[in-house]
């Protein structure tokens, strides 16, 4: 078993009102953890050590949790549910190794990142290895699952390329940003719920409802992090408030502020600061943060997040009123509360 600690659903806003559902989901996640450890083992000790690095650091395991929850709209006992949970988590872990190289990150999940410990080349190769292991496990789920996993991988890559390259010529910056989030974050979360529905034996309509819910929720969750980075006085997002602003990351409130045509002094001043790029000067950073917190852009971003959360909830309509649906609805409540 992994030495890491899997965080509870509460860390992502998931509330289990039904103890039997929670017990069943946690049992599935325990089995997923076993498959994960077995899947990353290699004849090469260095590959095993590096591949287990983030696995042992723990994590939310949100994507396998979604697989397990979605399967509870049908029969969650199938072995394929566990294997599907491993596929999506291996894919997610692979992206983290690559992301840390691109972001030059020093820490991941409270531990030194793989790239800071072993160098960029090895971190990239281990990410590739984890993608390969995900594909290998997917073959045990059948051709349809392989096709879905492959398509998801393609969307992940396109999202990363779009983020790196920036908006296409003539493309609206906000539309581009939302497209990136849909591809980079929403796609794998959507596949997690789709797999759960598929291998739980749900109907085609229920599977599509689950996939739509999950992608929409994933976008809402990522966007809500944008707001917390600006609005929170604490480290609620796991980062110092205003980190994205300091690093020049164009999050939704910033994009709305830059696109604003408001001609009041505060809006003009905010656009002036933001248009210069990363806000690294401490005084300017504090000023920009204050202006953003009081801006119409932040209100507009909150409305956007609530809109996605509402659409996610509405997409659950075709699903039966079972404890798993109550659990998924709790995610929407969490998003609405954390962005107020």
TrEMBL record:
Molecular function per GO: transferase activity
Keyword Transmembrane: no
Known EC number: 2.5.1.-
Residues annotated as signal peptide: none
Family to which the UniProt record says this protein belongs: Belongs to the FPP/GGPP synthase family.
A Pfam family of this chain: polyprenyl_synt
Top enzyme category: transferase
Superkingdom: Bacteria
InterPro entries: Isoprenoid_synthase_dom_sf (IPR008949), Polyprenyl_synt (IPR000092), Polyprenyl_synt_CS (IPR033749)
Native organism: Dactylosporangium cerinum
Alphabetical list of SUPFAM superfamilies matching this protein: Terpenoid synthases (SSF48576)
Official protein name in the record: Polyprenyl synthetase family protein
PROSITE patterns hit by this protein: POLYPRENYL_SYNTHASE_2
């Amino acid at each position: 078993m992994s030495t890491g600690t899997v965080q509870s659903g509460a860390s992502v806003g998931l509330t289990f009102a039904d103890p039997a559902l929670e017990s069943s989901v946690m049992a599935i996640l325990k089995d997923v953890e076993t498959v994960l450890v077995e899947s990353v083992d290699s004849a090469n000790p260095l590959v095993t050590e590096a591949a287990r690095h983030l696995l042992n650091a723990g994590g939310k395991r949100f994507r396998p949790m979604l697989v397990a929850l979605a399967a509870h709209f049908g029969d969650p006992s199938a072995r394929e549910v566990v294997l599907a949970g491993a596929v999506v988590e291996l894919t997610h872990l692979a992206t983290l190794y690559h992301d840390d190289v691109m972001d030059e990150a020093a820490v991941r999940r409270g531990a030194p990142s793989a790239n800071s410990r072993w160098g960029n080349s090895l971190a990239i190769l281990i990410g590739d290895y984890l993608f390969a292991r995900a594909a290998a496990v997917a073959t045990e789920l059948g051709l349809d699952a392989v096709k879905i996993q492959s398509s998801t991988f393609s969307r992940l890559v396109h999202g990363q390329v779009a983020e790196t390259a920036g908006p296409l010529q003539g493309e609206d910056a906000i539309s581009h940003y939302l497209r990136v989030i849909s591809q980079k974050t929403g796609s794998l979360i959507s596949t997690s719920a789709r797999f759960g529905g598929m291998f739980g034996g749900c109907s085609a309509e229920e599977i599509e409802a689950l996939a739509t819910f999950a992608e929409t929720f994933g976008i809402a969750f990522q966007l809500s992090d944008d707001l917390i980075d600006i609005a929170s006085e604490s480290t609620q997002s796991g980062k110092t408030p205003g980190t994205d602003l300091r690093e020049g990351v164009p999050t939704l409130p910033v994009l709305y502020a830059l696109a604003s045509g408001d001609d009041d002094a505060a809006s003009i001043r905010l656009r002036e600061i933001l248009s210069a790029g990363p806000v690294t000067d401490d005084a300017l950073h504090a000023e920009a943060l204050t202006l953003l917190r009081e801006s119409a852009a932040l209100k507009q971003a909150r409305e956007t997040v609530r809109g996605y959360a509402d659409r996610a909830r509405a997409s659950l309509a075709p699903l039966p009123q079972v404890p798993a649906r109550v659990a998924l609805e709790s995610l929407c409540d969490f998003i609405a509360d954390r962005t107020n």
